[in-house]
Amino acid sequence: MAGIKNAMSIDVEDYFQVSAFAPHVRREDWDSLPCRVERNVDVILTLLGDADARATFFTLGWIAERHPQVVRRIVDNGHELASHGYGHQRASDLTPAAFRDDITRAKRLLEDIGGVAVRGYRAPSFSINRSNWWAVAEIEAAGYAYSSSIYPVRHDHYGMPDAPRFPHRPNGDLGILELPPTTLPLLGRNLPAAGGGWFRLLPYEVSRWMLRRVHTQDQAPCMFYFHPWEVDPEQPRQTGLSAKTHFRHYVNLQRMPGRLRKLLNDFEWDRVDRVFLPAD
């Protein structure tokens, strides 16, 4: 539907920090690996600028600490700075105390570097579900205004299929606002329509149809996401991966910039806070 503004979001992490690579890339080796995030964020900022679009960058504290210029470029270009936690550890793998430390450390670091308030948080790998529901209250207690951490799909690495598809407050009317990535119900299940690997795997026309279907069927804005490493077909290749992991990560990387250009021009896009949060 004409006039509906959607939320564009980018999870700022580097290729070696992907959760599926955790069994193959040691965390203590991260600092010794070639970092591609600065180059890739610049590509994304150019794509957004060419389309006169704004977005939200859910940024790792680990990245911000080592590449503060990336954070400043995001803010200077008018985009929203948000948190992806500090060390890209799944919320489901942390204790409440460790999770609290991770999300508060990231928020403080991003605000110090960016010079702006950080209102949004997204858990790595959408890793909040019924098994770690305590995390919802921890995000609110850390001072965030919203979260985008619960994906209402069925997936082998994440997901909560019975969660609401649209913005809601998981802990009641006075609790934090949850903003799920967009899904489309079809044949009795929610299909991911929000980006990620499906956007690279399926023909672009399928993704465009799904987003338009949400507009016409639900009359609602969409929440889309992708990662900087997805616009980088020249990234170093990891070895020892399973066939499934290799396919999921590398499929159609070379086509991603072109598809994003089409997406940015076919729909209206803005920051998450401006699309979904009430005006102050």
- The count of strands amounts to 10
Main sheet properties: 5 strands, parallel
Estimated helix fraction: 25-40%
H-E string: EHEHHEHEHEEEEHHEHHEH
Radius of gyration: 17 Å
Mean pLDDT: 94
Count of helical stretches: 10
Strand fraction equals: 5-15%
Distance between the termini: 26 Å
Q: Uncertain runs with pLDDT below 50, 5 residues or more?
A: none
* Coarse structural class: alpha/beta
Q: How does the overall form come out from the CA principal axes? A: globular
Describe this structure in words.
With 280 residues, the protein is of the alpha/beta class. It has helices spanning 37-50, 61-66, 68-76, 96-114, 134-141, 196-201, 204-218, 243-250, 256-266, 272-276, and strands at 5-12, 56-59, 80-83, 120-121, 146-147, 177-178, 183-186, 189-192, 223-226, 268-270. The strands form three sheets. Strands 1, 2, 3, 9 and 10 form a five-stranded parallel beta sheet that branches. Helix 4 packs parallel to helix 5. The longest helix has 19 residues, at 96-114. The mean pLDDT is 94.
Please give a handful of descriptors for the protein shown.
280 residues, alpha/beta, five-stranded parallel sheet, three-stranded parallel sheet, 10 helices, 10 strands, 36% helix, globular
Summed up, what is this model?
The chain has 280 residues and is of the alpha/beta class.
Topology:
Blueprint (H helix, E strand, L loop, with lengths): L4 E8 L24 H14 L5 E4 L1 H6 L1 H9 L3 E4 L12 H19 L5 E2 L12 H8 L4 E2 L29 E2 L4 E4 L2 E4 L3 H6 L2 H15 L4 E4 L16 H8 L5 H11 L1 E3 L1 H5 L4
